[in-house]
Amino acid sequence: xxxxxxxxxxxxxxxxxxxxxxxxxxxxxxxxxxxxxxxxxxxxxxxxxxxxxxxxxxxxxxxxxxxxxxxxxxxxxxxxxxxxxxxxxxxxxxxxxxxxxxxxxxxxxxxxxxxxxxxxxxxxxxxxxxxxxxxxxxxxxxxxxxxxxxxxxxxxxxxxxxxxxxxxxxxxxxxxxxxxxxxxxxxxxxxxxxxxxxxxxxxxxxxxxxxxxxxxxxxxxxxxxxxxxxxxxxxxxxxxxxxxxxxxxxxxxxxxxxxxxxxxxxxxxxxxxxxxxxxxxxxxxxxxxxxxxxxxxxxxxxxxxxxxxxxxxxxxxxxxxxxxxxxxxxxxxxxxxxxxxxxxxxxxxxxxxxxxxxxxxxxxxxxxxxxxxxxxxxxxxxxxxxxxxxxxxxxxxxxxxxxxxxxxxxxxxxxxxxxxxxxxxxxxxxxxxxxxxxxxxxxxxxxxxxxxxxxxxxxxxxxxxxxxxxxxxxxxxxxxxxxxxxxxxxxxxx
Length: 494
Fold this sequence. Notes:
This protein has helices spanning 10-24, 35-46, 52-61, 63-70, 84-99, 118-131, 135-138, 148-156, 169-175, 188-191, 227-240, 284-291, 324-336, 340-353, 358-370, 374-387, 392-404, 408-421, 426-438, 442-457, 462-467, 475-493; strands spanning 107-112, 139-145, 158-160, 176-180, 183-186, 194-198, 213-217, 241-248, 263-267, 270-274. By secondary structure, the chain is of the alpha/beta class. The protein has 3 domains: 10-70, no CATH class; 84-274, Rossmann fold (3-Layer(aba) Sandwich); 284-304 and 356-493, Serine Threonine Protein Phosphatase 5, Tetratricopeptide repeat (Alpha Horseshoe), CATH 1.25.40.10. Strands 6-2-1-7-8-10-9 form a 7-stranded mixed sheet. A 3-stranded antiparallel sheet has the order 3-5-4. A hairpin with a 2-residue loop joins strand 4 and strand 5 (183-186). Helix 17 (392-404) packs antiparallel against helix 18 and helix 18 runs antiparallel to helix 19 (426-438). The longest helix is centred in the last third of the chain and has 19 residues, at 475-493.
């Protein structure tokens, strides 16, 4: 009988660390130091060997044994609807944006590092709830993980109570059936929506199905990788995205991946990465001239032409003589209650009573922008600007719309116009910096990030929200991003 292997010295562990780093990119520090010796002891005991050197030689020649060991090094800590705000963003914002103007082809959603499958199955449940059985026609959902045993469990679709701490009981009873005490199997209609495969993100070749992904979830995975591997894997995953596609990481991982490979975008208080069209390099002499978009003086507001106002629809159950400001406040309250459709319904009635109410047009634009309806948002901004060419809110929003649409030069012009008339607008400085960074203008990007950071740190960040109503910016998050971008740019100049 072979005794259980004894404690290993640091000298004995070091070659295993190097092998794991080379093969999988895993860094076994920061609280995970014990996972390696524990995993080694478990595997050596299972193989009935106490030879450290013999097991190391086995690992070097046997890929299957390396896979068995790695199962002991990863923590499959996941559950259904984890960080659900990102899943809601996917359903309510990212998917509608991707569907706009799309001509055929299913939207491809990939969960990288899916562990036992709770994340891709959560995505499938949401799609089924929203689009019904037809969701199979519109979407492809896939999950990949390095742990083959986790993938096998995902394919079985059987879960214990621990996996449901983020799910309400109604969904549990609707989509799962009890198979054993405390064990539930996912119904076939959801399991059939998701495919799974074992993939090592460090390997040289990714499977074909990972190409042209529209939405890629890569959450709570990079924590296992060494810093150099984090960058390598992120760049390779970014290469899997279709133009216009999104890459979603967890909130704690956002800044680690802000490498300039993808564009960081803030949506409804969350940050996601997007693959915008590449900027074609041009001769720097021409480039500087093209980038020198001189801000034009804003026109003075002309009195709006008198038009016959339509009567307010009786279905609103509002008296004709009520002030439009009351309607506007009601619409704003609906926005704050996360009821954008109701807010738009009220604003439609308001604008029938008073088509020249500028704030109503900008609020419509803001709602449409948050919904990902860029064309409708652009139209609302243009109406506001036709009535008041000096409306900086509408100009800033036009810049954000152009930025999200990948129209860099147009966005640049709008941001510079805003700053020409109000140098305190740190969101315009921030997005100007983002554009300069993507265009390779590092010195200008440094200056713009620095200015944005100073403006956020000085005074009340909410002042910008008041000045550029109804846009809302999360100053603290942008502040952290500015610091991170400045560090990266300064490091690249050394």
